[in-house]
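Predict structure. Input: Peptidase inhibitor family I36, 132 residues.
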Amino acid sequence: MYATLRKAAAVGAGCFLIMGAGAGLASGETPEEASQRALAECGDGHLCVWDDANYTGNMVAYYYCDPPDLFDEFPDGQAGSWLNHQTPGTAAVFFGPDPNNPQPPWPERYRSIAPEDSPDNKGLDLRSVDPC
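Output follows.
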């Protein structure tokens, strides 16, 4: 089973941070079970980003089209996995440094088109997101 999650702090209008020690695949959870757990935690119509792979660790959920959000609430400041279950076709744009542009504002590094589940960060250093 997975750890109990609790709402820890409001991060901004339209998003919230949930902190918990998600057990993820380390506790024997299958990839399908991890995806189903993440969907239950995230909810339909949201973009949810976790700081660790397999939908574990701290989570930020976005429902409204807020300005781009830095992942300051994550210990390493990076996205580890996400579920984009916004309205089908909605694009969430992830930004991050590259060798030619290590400081913000960062270039677009990945565009997630809903619906999309990503149990990892696709090998990218993703530091912020424009939810839609």
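Confidence is low (pLDDT under 50) at residues 1-24.
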